[in-house]
Amino acid sequence: MNDRYQQEPSIEAAPLEDGMILLDPATNQFSVLNQTAAAIWASVAKPATSAEVATEIRSRFAEVDGNLSSDVEQALREMVERGLIKQV
């Protein structure tokens, strides 16, 4: 996938002990992210492709195995569906 993703600027974020909580003020919906999802969110602070995000996640979490690219793409799609990030 060559699409680039970026955080929606209106989303408010706050760190949690082991992740992050996001608030969409337009819908008043909260999303709680685990540590890996929070890292994905952080990776799209500036526009990035899913491959670039997967590379970042792999470098931050040495224990990650399996089909990381597919997992990252799925997480990005879910974040787009929730309005947390956008394709640019």
Q: Can you describe what's shown?
A:
There is one protein chain. The chain has helices at 35-43, 50-60, 68-81; strands at residues 4-7, 12-16, 19-24, 29-34, 48-49, 85-87. It is an alpha+beta fold. The protein has a single domain, classed as Outer Surface Protein A, domain 3, CATH 3.90.930.60. The chain has a three-stranded antiparallel sheet with strand order 5-1-6. Strands 2-3-4 form a three-stranded antiparallel sheet. The protein starts with a strand and ends with a strand. The relative contact order is 0.25. The mean pLDDT is 93.
Radius of gyration: 12 Å
What does the largest sheet look like?
3 strands, antiparallel
Provide the structure class.
Answer: alpha+beta
How many domain units?
1
Q: Please bin the fraction of helical residues.
A: 25-40%
Q: SSE string, helix = H, strand = E? A: EEEEHEHHE
Q: Whole-number average pLDDT?
A: 93
The CATH topology assignment is Outer Surface Protein A, domain 3
Separation, N- and C-terminal Cα atoms? 13 Å
How many DSSP-defined strands?
Answer: 6
Strand order of the largest sheet: 5-1-6
**Beta-strand percent range:** 25-35%
Q: What's the total helix number? A: 3
Specify the overall morphology. globular
CATH architecture: Alpha-Beta Complex
Briefly summarize what is shown:
The protein is of the alpha+beta class. It has helices at 35-43, 50-60, 68-81; strands at 4-7, 12-16, 19-24, 29-34, 48-49, 85-87.
SSE layout and pairing:
Elements: E1 4-7, E2 12-16, E3 19-24, E4 29-34, H1 35-43, E5 48-49, H2 50-60, H3 68-81, E6 85-87
Antiparallel strand pairs: 1-5, 1-6, 2-3, 3-4
